[in-house]
């Protein structure tokens, strides 16, 4: 049995044991910190609290100040923000102390989402808090007054001293009230897309996707969801709660069915945001899983605005905005390829420094984003860059090559139909690079004369190195009668579904989008079957699980054999 299968077996046994001691409860209506029902805090207060929590900026615009034991000045601003330890979800984290004195002690940072601060869990008739590691179920609920004391003096709700890791903060009453308002928005009692028996997910497809590729991706997802649902355990009969353990009023809903909603976008990109808002209003979902498109910018913006987890879509132009949180991608797509080509040009295989580069791409296509990224990097190094943007009406790139002949290197951001029409290689510079993702990877229809001088950005593991990892999803497809239309895309779709499934299993019954992202960030590096990627790693505030690739060339004038002159590059 594989290590993944062994871990799954252990998790199933643990879940079965937990089910035997768990009971179902109805989620309580939202409460304020005193326990009474009241209207939500003002939007302005929540925004101020969000700035304090995420960026360490007080309502006045001044940085939040942290103080260590003995009154020693600690971090301030972003360094003092709550998110650094309690994470975006507000459900806490694990901190590993190092050094001779610490002895490798693991400290569990507790959840501070409003429900976990201001409600009692164990032994209370209205307790309804899902289990998360580090939750303090045996202390008194906080009030605004005791929370103020905890933040300013380091004293908890019952009068005990807080862990030395917890700083003391200089925070006024108004800012504290705003912070509480924001904490009460974290992990609400009713999470969109999660009901007692069903967990809803969406996948998004942009309008330029070819029907055959759309159908191929959806077949993988639909069969994965169906199989997962048929293999779920039958829920145990509810048992009477003892009221003496932190599990006594929670239900480990490992049997929830998964339902997939397909959100097909139409029309111009400017309308996608409104379309997505309507989809989300009609069909609330816990997260967006996989998906298919070229430019993901409008979708990324929608997910940030709605605080909706968007997990591992198949996109050529992902979005990397500092401070954004809700998106995880397998790779940086053409932006990673730009970095790989830049590294290749810097190490010029001809031995002659490259001083000028000409790029060719189709206007409005994904290659334009790759070309712009590469141009910016090259110009910062003093390299002259010229570009030719082919119009949709242009028959092919052959005419554009005449303008590129005087450059030291040519970069092609073109799809197979344009590669076939390249024409005479004699018009091209001696050094040529191309996008593998757009061109078809080892199946790129590059004319034989061009293959001899062209190097390809390859943001995946080499074919011979990934055989075992890719054979697993291919075998899964074969058994289920799934036609392989786009091997890399379908393997990535299967990988995305598998990662989300494993993360949900790890979440016990705390189903919340930001927490799902954090669980994935912590567990993805332990995945063995990673498909096209040699390894996947994520950390807090990282969006791209695979960080590198190769610059390759064809071994001969015909065939799919690739060779490379270097090891894995992480530009």
The total of beta strands comes to: 19
Cross-sheet strand order for the largest sheet: 14-13-15-16-17-18-19
Strand-residue proportion: 15-25%
Average predicted local confidence, pLDDT: 87
Helix content class = 25-40%
Characteristic terms for this protein:
about 575 residues, alpha/beta, Rossmann fold, seven-stranded mixed β-sheet, five-stranded parallel β-sheet, 18 helices, 19 strands, disordered N terminus
Q: Gist?
A:
The chain is α/β, with parallel strands linked by helices. The protein folds into three domains: 28-183, no CATH class; 198-331 and 466-540, Rossmann fold, CATH 3.40.50; 334-458, Response regulator (Rossmann fold, 3-Layer(aba) Sandwich).
Structure explained in plain terms:
With 571 residues, the protein is α/β, with parallel strands linked by helices. It folds into three domains: 28-183, no CATH class; 198-331 and 466-540, Rossmann fold; 334-458, 3-Layer(aba) Sandwich (Rossmann fold). It is built from 18 helices and 19 strands. The protein has helices at residues 3-19, 43-55, 83-86, 114-118, 144-153, 173-183, 211-230, 272-282, 297-306, 334-346, 366-380, 401-404, 416-420, 436-439, 448-451, 467-479, 487-506, 513-523, and strands at 65-67, 73-76, 93-96, 106-109, 168-170, 198-205, 257-264, 287-289, 292-295, 309-311, 314-317, 327-328, 356-362, 384-390, 409-413, 431-435, 454-458, 550-554, 562-564. The strands form five sheets. Strands 14-13-15-16-17-18-19 form a seven-stranded mixed sheet. A five-stranded parallel sheet has the order 7-6-8-10-12, with helices on both faces. α7 runs parallel beside α17 and α8 (272-282) packs across α9 (297-306). It is globular, with a radius of gyration of 27 Å. The protein starts with a helix and ends in a 7-residue tail after the last strand.
């Amino acid at each position: 049995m594989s290590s993944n299968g062994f871990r799954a077996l252990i998790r199933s046994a643990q879940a079965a044991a937990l089910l035997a001691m768990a009971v179902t409860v109805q989620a309580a209506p939202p409460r304020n910190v005193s326990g009474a029902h009241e209207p939500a805090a003002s939007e302005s207060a929540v925004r101020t609290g969000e700035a304090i929590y995420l960026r360490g900026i007080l309502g006045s615009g001044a940085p939040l100040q942290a103080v260590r034991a003995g009154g020693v000045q600690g971090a301030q601003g972003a360094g003092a923000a709550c998110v650094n330890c309690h994470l975006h979800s507000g459900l806490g984290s694990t901190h590993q102390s190092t050094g001779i004195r610490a002895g490798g002690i693991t400290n569990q940072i507790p959840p501070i989402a409003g429900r976990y601060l201001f409600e009692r869990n164990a032994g209370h008739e209205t307790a309804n808090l899902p289990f998360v590691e580090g939750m303090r179920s045996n202390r008194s609920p906080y009030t605004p007054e005791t929370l103020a004391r905890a933040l300013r003096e380091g004293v908890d709700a019952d009068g005990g001293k807080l862990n030395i890791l917890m700083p003391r903060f200089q925070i006024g009453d108004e800012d504290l009230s705003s912070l509480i308002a924001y904490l009460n928005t974290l992990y609400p009692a009713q999470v969109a897309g999660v009901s007692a028996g069903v967990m809803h997910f969406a996948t998004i497809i942009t309008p330029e996707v070819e029907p055959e590729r759309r159908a191929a991706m959806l077949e993988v997802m639909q069969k994965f969801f169906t199989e997962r649902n048929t293999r779920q355990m039958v829920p145990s009969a509810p048992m009477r709660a003892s009221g003496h353990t932190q599990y006594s009023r929670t239900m480990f809903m490992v049997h929830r069915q998964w339902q997939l909603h397909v959100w097909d976008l139409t029309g111009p990109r400017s309308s996608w945001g409104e379309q997505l808002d309507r989809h989300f209003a009609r069909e609330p979902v816990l997260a967006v899983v996989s998906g298919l498109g070229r430019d993901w910018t409008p979708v990324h913006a929608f997910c940030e605005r709605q605080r909706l987890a968007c997990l591992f879509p198949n996109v050529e132009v992902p979005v990397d905005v500092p401070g954004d949180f809700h998106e995880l991608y397998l790779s940086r797509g053409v932006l990673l390829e730009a970095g790989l080509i830049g590294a290749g040009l810097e190490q010029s295989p001809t031995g002659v420094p490259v001083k000028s580069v000409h790029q060719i791409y189709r206007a409005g296509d994904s290659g334009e984003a790759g070309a712009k990224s590469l141009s910016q990097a090259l110009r910062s190094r003093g390299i002259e860059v010229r570009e030719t943007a082919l119009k949709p009406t242009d028959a092919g790139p052959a005419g554009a090559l005449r303008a590129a002949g005087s450059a030291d290197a040519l970069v092609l951001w073109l799809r197979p139909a344009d590669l076939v029409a390249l024409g005479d290689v004699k018009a091209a510079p001696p050094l040529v690079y191309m996008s593998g993702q757009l061109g078809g990877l080892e199946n790129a229809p590059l004319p034989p004369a061009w293959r001899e001088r062209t190097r390809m950005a390859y943001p995946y593991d080499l074919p011979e190195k990934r055989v075992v990892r890719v054979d697993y999803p291919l075998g899964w497809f074969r058994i289920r009668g799934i036609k392989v239309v786009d091997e890399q895309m379908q393997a990535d779709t299967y990988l995305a579904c598998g990662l989300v499934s494993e993360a949900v299993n790890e979440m016990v019954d705390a189903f919340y989008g930001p927490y799902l992202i954090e669980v994935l960030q912590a567990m993805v590096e332990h995945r063995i079957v990673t498909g096209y990627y040699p390894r996947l790693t994520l950390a807090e505030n990282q969006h791209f699980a695979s960080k590198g690739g190769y610059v390759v060339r064809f071994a001969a004038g015909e065939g799919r054999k690739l060779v490379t002159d270097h090891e894995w590059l992480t530009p």
